Amino acid sequence: MKTAKINVKDGDLLATLREFFRSILQLDDISAILVPQHLPMKNVVMPTLVTDPEQLNGADPLAPVFPMNAAKIVSRLTRKPMGGRGRVAVVLRPCEIRAFIELVKLKQGRTEEVVLVGIDCLGAYKNVDYTQIIEEQETDFTSRFYRNVLSGEKMADHGFDLNPACKACEHPVPNGADILIGLFGVDTNKNLLVQARTPKGEDLYRNLDLSDTQEPPERAEAVKSLIAKRTAYRDKMFAETTEVTNSVEKLNIYLANCINCYNCRVACPVCYCKECVFVTDVFNHEPIQYLRWANRKGVIKMPTDTVFYHITRLAHMSTACVGCGQCSNACPNSIPVMELFRTVSFRTQKAFEYEPGKSIKDEPPLSVFREDELSDVVGIGK
Amino acid sequence: MGNFEPTIIAFVCNWCTYTAADLAGTSRLGYPANVRLIRVMCTGMVDPKYVIKAFLEGADAVLVSGCHPGDCHYINGNYKARRRIKLLKEILPQFGFGDERLRLTWIGASDGIQFANTIREMVTQIKRLGPNEAKGTMVI
Question: Across the A/B interface, how many CB contacts are shorter than 8 Å?
Fold first, then answer.
Protein backbone atom coordinates (compact mmCIF):
# COMPACT_ATOMS: atom_id res chain seq x y z
CA MET A 1 0.00 0.00 0.00
CA LYS A 2 1.34 3.41 -0.98
CA THR A 3 0.21 6.75 0.39
CA ALA A 4 0.77 10.28 -0.89
CA LYS A 5 -0.45 13.76 -0.07
CA ILE A 6 -1.57 16.20 -2.72
CA ASN A 7 -1.72 19.90 -2.06
CA VAL A 8 -5.05 21.64 -1.92
CA LYS A 9 -4.77 25.07 -3.51
CA ASP A 10 -6.66 27.88 -1.76
CA GLY A 11 -8.54 25.35 0.34
CA ASP A 12 -10.52 24.38 -2.76
CA LEU A 13 -11.01 20.62 -2.58
CA LEU A 14 -13.18 20.43 -5.66
CA ALA A 15 -10.66 22.19 -7.90
CA THR A 16 -7.93 19.90 -6.54
CA LEU A 17 -10.00 16.79 -7.18
CA ARG A 18 -10.82 17.94 -10.72
CA GLU A 19 -7.14 18.49 -11.38
CA PHE A 20 -6.39 15.04 -9.99
CA PHE A 21 -9.04 13.43 -12.20
CA ARG A 22 -7.62 15.31 -15.19
CA SER A 23 -4.17 13.90 -14.46
CA ILE A 24 -5.66 10.38 -14.25
CA LEU A 25 -7.52 10.82 -17.52
CA GLN A 26 -4.35 11.99 -19.25
CA LEU A 27 -2.56 8.73 -18.45
CA ASP A 28 -1.92 6.51 -21.48
CA ASP A 29 -3.68 3.48 -20.12
CA ILE A 30 -6.82 5.28 -18.94
CA SER A 31 -9.44 5.63 -21.66
CA ALA A 32 -12.18 7.37 -19.70
CA ILE A 33 -13.30 8.42 -16.27
CA LEU A 34 -16.74 7.95 -14.75
CA VAL A 35 -17.44 10.75 -12.31
CA PRO A 36 -20.48 12.53 -10.86
CA GLN A 37 -20.90 15.91 -12.45
CA HIS A 38 -23.22 18.92 -12.33
CA LEU A 39 -25.04 18.76 -15.63
CA PRO A 40 -24.85 21.83 -17.85
CA MET A 41 -28.53 21.56 -18.79
CA LYS A 42 -29.88 21.33 -15.26
CA ASN A 43 -28.35 21.75 -11.86
CA VAL A 44 -28.42 18.10 -10.86
CA VAL A 45 -25.50 15.79 -10.20
CA MET A 46 -25.37 12.64 -12.31
CA PRO A 47 -22.68 10.15 -13.28
CA THR A 48 -20.87 11.18 -16.48
CA LEU A 49 -18.44 9.22 -18.63
CA VAL A 50 -15.67 11.59 -19.68
CA THR A 51 -12.92 11.11 -22.25
CA ASP A 52 -12.02 14.79 -22.83
CA PRO A 53 -9.98 16.24 -19.94
CA GLU A 54 -11.53 19.63 -20.65
CA GLN A 55 -14.97 18.24 -19.80
CA LEU A 56 -14.35 17.81 -16.09
CA ASN A 57 -15.23 21.31 -14.96
CA GLY A 58 -18.51 20.26 -13.36
CA ALA A 59 -17.08 17.16 -11.66
CA ASP A 60 -18.31 17.11 -8.10
CA PRO A 61 -17.85 13.82 -6.25
CA LEU A 62 -18.41 15.59 -2.92
CA ALA A 63 -21.92 16.88 -3.77
CA PRO A 64 -24.12 15.52 -1.00
CA VAL A 65 -26.41 13.61 -3.34
CA PHE A 66 -26.36 10.52 -5.52
CA PRO A 67 -29.55 10.07 -7.51
CA MET A 68 -28.68 6.45 -8.21
CA ASN A 69 -26.22 3.86 -7.02
CA ALA A 70 -23.62 4.03 -9.82
CA ALA A 71 -22.64 0.38 -9.32
CA LYS A 72 -25.39 -0.30 -11.85
CA ILE A 73 -23.66 1.96 -14.37
CA VAL A 74 -20.28 0.30 -13.83
CA SER A 75 -22.00 -3.06 -14.22
CA ARG A 76 -23.29 -1.97 -17.62
CA LEU A 77 -19.88 -0.68 -18.66
CA THR A 78 -18.10 -3.89 -17.74
CA ARG A 79 -20.46 -6.76 -18.49
CA LYS A 80 -18.39 -7.62 -21.59
CA PRO A 81 -14.84 -6.72 -22.62
CA MET A 82 -14.91 -3.07 -23.62
CA GLY A 83 -12.10 -3.19 -26.13
CA GLY A 84 -10.97 0.37 -25.34
CA ARG A 85 -7.33 1.36 -25.27
CA GLY A 86 -7.10 1.10 -21.51
CA ARG A 87 -9.01 1.02 -18.29
CA VAL A 88 -11.86 3.22 -17.19
CA ALA A 89 -11.37 4.99 -13.88
CA VAL A 90 -14.64 5.03 -11.95
CA VAL A 91 -15.12 7.47 -9.09
CA LEU A 92 -17.54 5.93 -6.61
CA ARG A 93 -18.86 6.21 -3.10
CA PRO A 94 -17.99 3.38 -0.70
CA CYS A 95 -21.51 1.91 -0.96
CA GLU A 96 -21.29 1.98 -4.74
CA ILE A 97 -17.98 0.11 -4.67
CA ARG A 98 -19.41 -2.48 -2.30
CA ALA A 99 -22.48 -2.95 -4.51
CA PHE A 100 -20.27 -3.31 -7.58
CA ILE A 101 -18.20 -6.00 -5.86
CA GLU A 102 -21.43 -7.89 -5.18
CA LEU A 103 -22.43 -7.58 -8.84
CA VAL A 104 -19.03 -8.88 -9.96
CA LYS A 105 -19.56 -11.95 -7.80
CA LEU A 106 -22.94 -12.43 -9.47
CA LYS A 107 -21.24 -12.26 -12.89
CA GLN A 108 -22.92 -8.95 -13.66
CA GLY A 109 -19.76 -6.91 -13.92
CA ARG A 110 -15.99 -7.31 -14.34
CA THR A 111 -13.12 -5.62 -12.61
CA GLU A 112 -10.48 -6.18 -15.30
CA GLU A 113 -11.07 -2.95 -17.16
CA VAL A 114 -11.89 -0.58 -14.35
CA VAL A 115 -9.87 1.16 -11.68
CA LEU A 116 -12.03 1.85 -8.64
CA VAL A 117 -11.40 5.32 -7.26
CA GLY A 118 -13.13 5.76 -3.92
CA ILE A 119 -13.46 8.90 -1.85
CA ASP A 120 -14.08 9.09 1.89
CA CYS A 121 -17.83 9.56 1.97
CA LEU A 122 -19.34 12.58 3.68
CA GLY A 123 -22.88 11.31 3.16
CA ALA A 124 -25.74 12.61 1.09
CA TYR A 125 -29.18 14.13 1.40
CA LYS A 126 -32.30 12.43 0.15
CA ASN A 127 -32.73 13.10 -3.55
CA VAL A 128 -35.85 15.20 -3.09
CA ASP A 129 -34.30 17.17 -0.24
CA TYR A 130 -31.18 17.97 -2.25
CA THR A 131 -33.26 19.28 -5.15
CA GLN A 132 -35.02 21.61 -2.76
CA ILE A 133 -31.83 22.68 -1.03
CA ILE A 134 -30.00 23.75 -4.18
CA GLU A 135 -33.06 25.61 -5.37
CA GLU A 136 -32.93 27.76 -2.28
CA GLN A 137 -29.18 27.86 -1.65
CA GLU A 138 -26.14 29.37 -3.32
CA THR A 139 -24.62 27.61 -6.31
CA ASP A 140 -21.48 26.54 -4.49
CA PHE A 141 -23.38 24.50 -1.94
CA THR A 142 -20.96 21.55 -2.13
CA SER A 143 -17.99 23.61 -0.88
CA ARG A 144 -19.88 24.86 2.12
CA PHE A 145 -21.18 21.36 2.77
CA TYR A 146 -17.81 19.62 2.85
CA ARG A 147 -16.20 22.40 4.88
CA ASN A 148 -18.92 22.15 7.49
CA VAL A 149 -18.92 18.37 7.64
CA LEU A 150 -15.13 18.07 7.79
CA SER A 151 -14.89 20.66 10.54
CA GLY A 152 -17.62 18.85 12.45
CA GLU A 153 -20.23 21.59 12.21
CA LYS A 154 -23.87 21.12 11.39
CA MET A 155 -25.51 22.62 8.33
CA ALA A 156 -27.86 24.66 10.45
CA ASP A 157 -29.28 27.08 7.93
CA HIS A 158 -31.70 24.78 6.19
CA GLY A 159 -34.19 22.37 7.64
CA PHE A 160 -32.80 19.19 6.11
CA ASP A 161 -30.81 16.40 7.63
CA LEU A 162 -28.66 13.80 5.88
CA ASN A 163 -30.25 10.66 4.50
CA PRO A 164 -30.86 8.16 7.34
CA ALA A 165 -29.03 5.55 5.24
CA CYS A 166 -25.89 7.71 5.39
CA LYS A 167 -26.29 8.48 9.07
CA ALA A 168 -26.47 4.73 9.75
CA CYS A 169 -23.59 3.85 7.41
CA GLU A 170 -20.63 2.24 9.14
CA HIS A 171 -18.57 2.13 5.93
CA PRO A 172 -17.58 5.76 5.25
CA VAL A 173 -14.13 4.73 3.97
CA PRO A 174 -13.87 3.02 0.55
CA ASN A 175 -11.68 0.10 1.63
CA GLY A 176 -12.42 -1.85 -1.56
CA ALA A 177 -11.07 0.88 -3.85
CA ASP A 178 -7.93 0.52 -5.94
CA ILE A 179 -7.20 4.20 -5.33
CA LEU A 180 -8.54 5.81 -2.17
CA ILE A 181 -8.87 9.54 -1.73
CA GLY A 182 -8.81 10.30 1.98
CA LEU A 183 -10.43 13.27 3.69
CA PHE A 184 -10.94 12.10 7.26
CA GLY A 185 -8.19 12.90 9.73
CA VAL A 186 -6.45 15.06 7.15
CA ASP A 187 -6.07 18.84 7.15
CA THR A 188 -8.15 19.26 4.02
CA ASN A 189 -7.48 22.99 3.85
CA LYS A 190 -3.93 22.09 2.93
CA ASN A 191 -3.90 18.62 1.46
CA LEU A 192 -5.71 15.39 0.84
CA LEU A 193 -4.60 11.80 0.85
CA VAL A 194 -4.13 9.48 -2.13
CA GLN A 195 -3.66 5.84 -1.34
CA ALA A 196 -2.99 2.88 -3.64
CA ARG A 197 -4.63 -0.11 -2.00
CA THR A 198 -4.21 -2.82 -4.66
CA PRO A 199 -1.57 -3.77 -7.25
CA LYS A 200 -3.82 -2.21 -9.90
CA GLY A 201 -4.00 0.96 -7.86
CA GLU A 202 -0.23 0.96 -7.44
CA ASP A 203 0.23 0.78 -11.22
CA LEU A 204 -1.80 3.92 -11.62
CA TYR A 205 -0.21 5.56 -8.59
CA ARG A 206 3.28 5.05 -10.03
CA ASN A 207 2.35 6.89 -13.22
CA LEU A 208 0.92 9.86 -11.38
CA ASP A 209 4.16 11.39 -10.15
CA LEU A 210 3.20 11.49 -6.48
CA SER A 211 5.59 11.64 -3.57
CA ASP A 212 5.24 8.99 -0.88
CA THR A 213 4.33 9.85 2.66
CA GLN A 214 2.79 8.18 5.69
CA GLU A 215 -0.86 8.09 6.59
CA PRO A 216 -1.35 10.73 9.32
CA PRO A 217 -1.87 9.04 12.69
CA GLU A 218 -5.01 11.12 13.33
CA ARG A 219 -6.78 9.42 10.44
CA ALA A 220 -7.42 6.04 12.06
CA GLU A 221 -8.78 7.80 15.14
CA ALA A 222 -11.06 10.10 13.11
CA VAL A 223 -12.46 7.17 11.14
CA LYS A 224 -12.98 5.12 14.26
CA SER A 225 -14.96 7.80 16.04
CA LEU A 226 -17.07 8.48 12.95
CA ILE A 227 -17.90 4.78 12.63
CA ALA A 228 -18.77 4.61 16.32
CA LYS A 229 -21.22 7.49 15.89
CA ARG A 230 -22.77 5.91 12.81
CA THR A 231 -23.03 2.49 14.47
CA ALA A 232 -24.84 3.99 17.45
CA TYR A 233 -27.37 5.62 15.11
CA ARG A 234 -27.69 2.37 13.18
CA ASP A 235 -28.36 0.27 16.25
CA LYS A 236 -31.02 2.67 17.44
CA MET A 237 -32.60 2.48 13.98
CA PHE A 238 -32.53 -1.34 14.12
CA ALA A 239 -34.24 -1.35 17.52
CA GLU A 240 -36.93 1.10 16.42
CA THR A 241 -37.61 -0.71 13.15
CA THR A 242 -37.77 -4.09 14.85
CA GLU A 243 -40.33 -2.69 17.26
CA VAL A 244 -42.66 -1.42 14.51
CA THR A 245 -42.47 -4.55 12.30
CA ASN A 246 -42.37 -7.43 14.77
CA SER A 247 -45.71 -8.93 13.79
CA VAL A 248 -47.44 -9.45 10.48
CA GLU A 249 -50.09 -6.91 11.51
CA LYS A 250 -47.40 -4.30 12.14
CA LEU A 251 -45.58 -5.16 8.93
CA ASN A 252 -48.85 -4.65 7.07
CA ILE A 253 -49.13 -1.20 8.60
CA TYR A 254 -45.48 -0.42 7.78
CA LEU A 255 -46.01 -1.33 4.13
CA ALA A 256 -49.65 -0.24 3.90
CA ASN A 257 -49.17 2.36 1.15
CA CYS A 258 -46.99 0.19 -1.07
CA ILE A 259 -48.42 0.38 -4.59
CA ASN A 260 -46.26 -2.28 -6.26
CA CYS A 261 -44.43 0.29 -8.36
CA TYR A 262 -41.24 -1.73 -7.76
CA ASN A 263 -39.17 1.46 -7.76
CA CYS A 264 -37.21 0.16 -4.75
CA ARG A 265 -36.23 -2.90 -6.74
CA VAL A 266 -35.25 -0.80 -9.78
CA ALA A 267 -33.16 1.52 -7.61
CA CYS A 268 -31.54 -1.36 -5.73
CA PRO A 269 -28.03 -1.99 -7.03
CA VAL A 270 -27.95 -5.60 -5.86
CA CYS A 271 -31.44 -6.75 -6.91
CA TYR A 272 -29.87 -9.03 -9.45
CA CYS A 273 -32.68 -10.87 -11.30
CA LYS A 274 -32.79 -9.98 -14.97
CA GLU A 275 -36.55 -10.36 -14.90
CA CYS A 276 -38.34 -9.92 -11.60
CA VAL A 277 -40.84 -12.68 -10.95
CA PHE A 278 -43.30 -10.08 -9.68
CA VAL A 279 -43.75 -8.64 -13.19
CA THR A 280 -44.23 -12.05 -14.81
CA ASP A 281 -47.48 -13.89 -15.44
CA VAL A 282 -47.04 -15.67 -12.11
CA PHE A 283 -48.53 -12.56 -10.52
CA ASN A 284 -50.90 -11.71 -13.34
CA HIS A 285 -53.72 -13.41 -11.46
CA GLU A 286 -57.00 -14.49 -12.97
CA PRO A 287 -59.60 -11.81 -12.23
CA ILE A 288 -61.71 -14.38 -10.37
CA GLN A 289 -58.77 -15.01 -8.02
CA TYR A 290 -59.19 -11.56 -6.48
CA LEU A 291 -62.85 -12.31 -5.84
CA ARG A 292 -61.95 -15.64 -4.25
CA TRP A 293 -59.54 -13.91 -1.90
CA ALA A 294 -62.06 -11.21 -1.08
CA ASN A 295 -64.75 -13.84 -0.48
CA ARG A 296 -62.52 -15.71 1.93
CA LYS A 297 -61.66 -12.64 4.00
CA GLY A 298 -64.61 -10.31 3.39
CA VAL A 299 -62.19 -7.53 2.45
CA ILE A 300 -58.72 -7.46 0.92
CA LYS A 301 -56.40 -4.52 0.50
CA MET A 302 -55.47 -3.69 -3.08
CA PRO A 303 -53.08 -4.01 -4.78
CA THR A 304 -52.31 -7.55 -3.62
CA ASP A 305 -48.89 -9.17 -3.20
CA THR A 306 -47.21 -6.14 -1.63
CA VAL A 307 -45.99 -7.73 1.61
CA PHE A 308 -45.21 -10.90 -0.33
CA TYR A 309 -43.05 -8.84 -2.68
CA HIS A 310 -41.01 -7.22 0.06
CA ILE A 311 -40.37 -10.43 2.00
CA THR A 312 -39.38 -12.18 -1.23
CA ARG A 313 -36.99 -9.37 -2.06
CA LEU A 314 -35.49 -9.74 1.40
CA ALA A 315 -34.97 -13.44 0.71
CA HIS A 316 -33.28 -12.61 -2.59
CA MET A 317 -30.96 -9.72 -1.82
CA SER A 318 -30.73 -9.13 1.92
CA THR A 319 -27.38 -10.94 2.22
CA ALA A 320 -26.03 -8.56 -0.44
CA CYS A 321 -27.61 -5.34 0.88
CA VAL A 322 -24.97 -2.59 1.16
CA GLY A 323 -27.33 -0.12 2.84
CA CYS A 324 -27.04 2.63 0.22
CA GLY A 325 -30.63 3.72 0.87
CA GLN A 326 -31.64 4.17 -2.76
CA CYS A 327 -34.75 2.05 -2.10
CA SER A 328 -36.09 4.67 0.29
CA ASN A 329 -35.07 7.42 -2.13
CA ALA A 330 -37.12 5.76 -4.84
CA CYS A 331 -40.32 5.19 -2.89
CA PRO A 332 -43.09 7.51 -4.06
CA ASN A 333 -45.03 7.01 -0.83
CA SER A 334 -42.18 7.59 1.63
CA ILE A 335 -42.12 4.08 3.07
CA PRO A 336 -38.89 3.71 5.10
CA VAL A 337 -37.73 0.77 2.99
CA MET A 338 -34.03 1.11 3.82
CA GLU A 339 -34.69 0.90 7.57
CA LEU A 340 -36.58 -2.38 7.17
CA PHE A 341 -34.13 -3.91 4.72
CA ARG A 342 -31.06 -2.98 6.71
CA THR A 343 -32.61 -4.32 9.92
CA VAL A 344 -33.34 -7.72 8.37
CA SER A 345 -30.12 -7.77 6.32
CA PHE A 346 -28.08 -7.28 9.45
CA ARG A 347 -29.53 -10.55 10.74
CA THR A 348 -29.16 -12.56 7.53
CA GLN A 349 -25.62 -11.31 6.92
CA LYS A 350 -24.64 -12.17 10.46
CA ALA A 351 -26.20 -15.63 10.15
CA PHE A 352 -23.93 -16.46 7.22
CA GLU A 353 -20.99 -14.40 8.56
CA TYR A 354 -21.04 -12.49 5.30
CA GLU A 355 -20.17 -8.87 4.72
CA PRO A 356 -21.31 -7.73 1.29
CA GLY A 357 -18.76 -5.82 -0.76
CA LYS A 358 -15.89 -6.72 1.53
CA SER A 359 -14.03 -9.06 -0.78
CA ILE A 360 -14.48 -10.53 -4.21
CA LYS A 361 -13.32 -13.83 -2.74
CA ASP A 362 -16.17 -14.25 -0.23
CA GLU A 363 -18.83 -16.35 -1.91
CA PRO A 364 -22.46 -15.12 -1.75
CA PRO A 365 -24.02 -17.34 0.94
CA LEU A 366 -26.87 -18.68 -1.18
CA SER A 367 -24.57 -19.63 -4.05
CA VAL A 368 -22.71 -22.27 -2.08
CA PHE A 369 -23.22 -24.93 0.59
CA ARG A 370 -21.09 -27.16 2.79
CA GLU A 371 -21.95 -30.73 3.59
CA ASP A 372 -21.17 -30.30 7.25
CA GLU A 373 -22.97 -27.20 8.47
CA LEU A 374 -26.17 -25.73 9.89
CA SER A 375 -27.20 -28.80 11.87
CA ASP A 376 -29.21 -26.49 14.15
CA VAL A 377 -31.63 -25.76 11.29
CA VAL A 378 -32.73 -29.38 10.99
CA GLY A 379 -35.29 -31.07 13.22
CA ILE A 380 -38.51 -30.24 15.00
CA GLY A 381 -37.16 -29.17 18.36
CA LYS A 382 -38.49 -30.35 21.66
CA MET B 1 -58.34 -22.15 21.40
CA GLY B 2 -59.41 -25.67 22.35
CA ASN B 3 -60.90 -26.31 18.92
CA PHE B 4 -57.94 -24.93 17.00
CA GLU B 5 -56.93 -27.31 14.23
CA PRO B 6 -53.72 -26.06 12.65
CA THR B 7 -52.96 -26.30 8.96
CA ILE B 8 -49.48 -27.50 8.14
CA ILE B 9 -48.16 -27.19 4.61
CA ALA B 10 -45.52 -29.85 3.98
CA PHE B 11 -43.21 -29.75 0.97
CA VAL B 12 -41.96 -33.32 0.72
CA CYS B 13 -39.45 -34.71 -1.73
CA ASN B 14 -40.53 -37.40 -4.14
CA TRP B 15 -37.71 -39.79 -3.30
CA CYS B 16 -37.61 -39.80 0.47
CA THR B 17 -40.25 -38.10 2.57
CA TYR B 18 -43.12 -38.54 0.13
CA THR B 19 -42.28 -42.22 -0.08
CA ALA B 20 -42.12 -42.31 3.73
CA ALA B 21 -45.59 -40.74 3.88
CA ASP B 22 -46.80 -43.34 1.43
CA LEU B 23 -45.26 -46.05 3.57
CA ALA B 24 -46.98 -44.65 6.65
CA GLY B 25 -50.26 -44.95 4.75
CA THR B 26 -49.72 -48.47 3.43
CA SER B 27 -48.58 -49.51 6.92
CA ARG B 28 -51.87 -48.12 8.26
CA LEU B 29 -50.07 -45.74 10.61
CA GLY B 30 -52.39 -42.99 11.71
CA TYR B 31 -51.31 -39.36 11.83
CA PRO B 32 -53.32 -36.12 12.16
CA ALA B 33 -55.10 -34.87 9.07
CA ASN B 34 -53.80 -31.31 9.63
CA VAL B 35 -51.01 -31.72 7.13
CA ARG B 36 -51.33 -30.87 3.44
CA LEU B 37 -48.66 -32.70 1.51
CA ILE B 38 -47.18 -31.05 -1.56
CA ARG B 39 -44.93 -33.42 -3.42
CA VAL B 40 -41.90 -31.83 -5.02
CA MET B 41 -39.12 -33.60 -6.88
CA CYS B 42 -36.50 -32.33 -4.42
CA THR B 43 -36.32 -30.04 -1.41
CA GLY B 44 -33.79 -28.14 -3.50
CA MET B 45 -36.66 -26.87 -5.64
CA VAL B 46 -38.57 -25.37 -2.72
CA ASP B 47 -38.34 -21.69 -3.59
CA PRO B 48 -38.37 -19.47 -0.47
CA LYS B 49 -41.39 -17.81 -2.11
CA TYR B 50 -43.44 -21.00 -1.58
CA VAL B 51 -42.79 -20.85 2.14
CA ILE B 52 -43.44 -17.10 2.40
CA LYS B 53 -46.67 -17.45 0.42
CA ALA B 54 -47.86 -20.32 2.61
CA PHE B 55 -47.42 -18.21 5.74
CA LEU B 56 -49.02 -15.10 4.24
CA GLU B 57 -52.00 -17.22 3.15
CA GLY B 58 -52.42 -18.34 6.75
CA ALA B 59 -50.58 -21.66 7.08
CA ASP B 60 -49.91 -22.26 10.77
CA ALA B 61 -46.69 -24.10 10.01
CA VAL B 62 -44.58 -25.15 7.06
CA LEU B 63 -42.57 -28.35 6.90
CA VAL B 64 -39.90 -28.96 4.31
CA SER B 65 -38.70 -32.54 4.35
CA GLY B 66 -36.37 -34.52 2.16
CA CYS B 67 -33.54 -37.02 1.98
CA HIS B 68 -30.80 -37.33 4.58
CA PRO B 69 -27.49 -35.63 3.78
CA GLY B 70 -25.66 -37.75 1.25
CA ASP B 71 -28.88 -39.43 0.04
CA CYS B 72 -30.24 -36.71 -2.24
CA HIS B 73 -31.39 -38.13 -5.56
CA TYR B 74 -29.94 -35.03 -7.19
CA ILE B 75 -26.74 -35.22 -5.11
CA ASN B 76 -26.97 -31.89 -3.27
CA GLY B 77 -30.49 -30.40 -3.46
CA ASN B 78 -31.04 -30.94 0.27
CA TYR B 79 -27.90 -28.96 1.16
CA LYS B 80 -29.18 -26.02 -0.87
CA ALA B 81 -32.57 -26.32 0.81
CA ARG B 82 -30.87 -26.19 4.20
CA ARG B 83 -29.22 -22.83 3.41
CA ARG B 84 -32.55 -21.43 2.17
CA ILE B 85 -34.36 -22.55 5.30
CA LYS B 86 -31.61 -21.00 7.40
CA LEU B 87 -32.16 -17.74 5.50
CA LEU B 88 -35.94 -17.88 6.03
CA LYS B 89 -35.45 -18.63 9.72
CA GLU B 90 -33.57 -15.35 9.98
CA ILE B 91 -36.13 -13.29 8.03
CA LEU B 92 -39.55 -14.64 9.05
CA PRO B 93 -39.29 -14.49 12.88
CA GLN B 94 -38.77 -10.72 12.55
CA PHE B 95 -42.37 -10.53 11.35
CA GLY B 96 -43.88 -12.81 13.95
CA PHE B 97 -43.62 -16.11 12.08
CA GLY B 98 -41.71 -17.80 14.86
CA ASP B 99 -38.90 -20.23 14.36
CA GLU B 100 -41.11 -23.15 15.51
CA ARG B 101 -43.49 -22.64 12.60
CA LEU B 102 -40.89 -23.48 9.96
CA ARG B 103 -39.29 -26.88 10.13
CA LEU B 104 -36.81 -28.78 8.01
CA THR B 105 -36.41 -32.52 8.52
CA TRP B 106 -34.69 -35.41 6.83
CA ILE B 107 -37.02 -38.42 6.59
CA GLY B 108 -35.81 -41.33 4.46
CA ALA B 109 -38.05 -43.49 2.26
CA SER B 110 -38.17 -46.30 4.82
CA ASP B 111 -39.02 -44.03 7.76
CA GLY B 112 -42.84 -44.23 7.69
CA ILE B 113 -42.95 -44.33 11.47
CA GLN B 114 -40.73 -41.27 11.79
CA PHE B 115 -42.93 -39.40 9.32
CA ALA B 116 -46.09 -40.11 11.33
CA ASN B 117 -44.32 -39.16 14.57
CA THR B 118 -43.01 -35.91 13.08
CA ILE B 119 -46.46 -34.81 11.97
CA ARG B 120 -47.96 -35.75 15.33
CA GLU B 121 -45.29 -33.81 17.22
CA MET B 122 -45.62 -30.76 14.97
CA VAL B 123 -49.39 -30.65 15.37
CA THR B 124 -49.01 -30.77 19.15
CA GLN B 125 -46.47 -27.97 19.07
CA ILE B 126 -48.52 -25.71 16.79
CA LYS B 127 -51.70 -26.29 18.82
CA ARG B 128 -49.78 -25.02 21.82
CA LEU B 129 -48.52 -22.03 19.81
CA GLY B 130 -51.91 -20.96 18.46
CA PRO B 131 -52.93 -19.82 14.98
CA ASN B 132 -50.92 -17.77 12.52
CA GLU B 133 -52.18 -14.22 12.87
CA ALA B 134 -51.83 -13.58 9.12
CA LYS B 135 -55.14 -15.43 8.72
CA GLY B 136 -57.10 -12.51 10.08
CA THR B 137 -55.56 -9.72 8.01
CA MET B 138 -56.95 -8.04 4.91
CA VAL B 139 -53.55 -8.17 3.22
CA ILE B 140 -52.89 -10.82 0.59
Answer: 120
